[in-house]
Amino acid sequence: MQAQAAPSVWIDDGHAIVRRGMSACLQQAGFVVRGESMGLAPTPVMTGLDVLIFESEPGALRRAVRLAAGRPTRLVATIRTVSEQHVREIVDAGVGSVLPHDTLTPETLVTSLRAVVAGNVSLPGDMLVKLLAHVRQHSQLRPTELNTRERSVLRLLADGMDTRGIAEDLCFSERTVKNVVHDLLTKLNCRTRAQAVALATREGVI
């Protein structure tokens, strides 16, 4: 069996020490650091890149999303100031993980990136609360709108399982799971898995 390639990462941050610290932690955990930048300059090399970590300063979110458009690259945002509006914008843009600088540790960095590479989302508890508030204001969901299969997939998403794990647990193909997730996001009017889980949790569906 061919060994799985180590996930590749590009690190963007305004402080060299932060970049070097992240790089050391991730390389020790088995990631391949492909490059570094400040303010997304020089422009990250996106070809074949698994994860782009970027500092979500004004304008950076839009540029990062544009760089990743049409690519399988996952986005991870680091933020220095946490606000409800900022969190909402980041999650609505489809970013897989949000890492506040003031609570960032080697363990949370590695755990979050592993979750994102596996296709999951990673949000601190206080940010999930903010997201729940946002979803509650903009979405309405009746439990009868979801079928048994969709509820089962949602529960496993809430448990942090990735597509492969859900497929194995429910005896589905990975393609079926992806189709169910797509239908869920469409039905719930959510852009990300995190939003779907937040909405379903808030409404007592799962």
Number of strands: 5
Strand order of the largest sheet: 2-1-3-4-5
Number of contiguous helices: 9
CATH architecture term of the largest domain: 3-Layer(aba) Sandwich
In percent, how much strand structure appears in the residues?
5-15%
CATH class of the largest domain: Alpha Beta
> What is the count of structural domains?
2
Rounded to an integer in angstroms, the radius of gyration calculated over CA atoms is: 17 Å
Keywords: DNA-binding, Transcription, Transcription regulation
Protein name: Helix-turn-helix transcriptional regulator
Domain HTH luxR-type: 139-204
InterPro entries: Sig_transdc_resp-reg_C-effctor (IPR016032), Tscrpt_reg_LuxR_C (IPR000792), WalR-like (IPR039420)
Question: What does this molecule look like?
Answer:
By secondary structure, the chain is an alpha/beta fold. The protein is 49% helix and 13% strand. It is built from nine helices and five strands; from the N terminus they run E-H-E-E-H-E-H-E-H-H-H-H-H-H. It has helices at residues 16-28, 60-68, 84-92, 106-117, 125-138, 148-158, 163-170, 174-188, 193-202, and strands spanning 8-12, 32-37, 51-55, 74-79, 97-100. Helix 3 packs across helix 5. The protein is globular and about 50 Å long. The mean pLDDT is 83. Keywords: DNA-binding, Transcription, Transcription regulation.
Structural key phrases:
single chain; 206 residues; alpha/beta; Rossmann fold; Arc Repressor Mutant, subunit A; 2 domains; five-stranded parallel beta sheet; 9 helices; 5 strands; 13% strand; globular; Tscrpt_reg_LuxR_C; DNA-binding; Helix-turn-helix transcriptional regulator
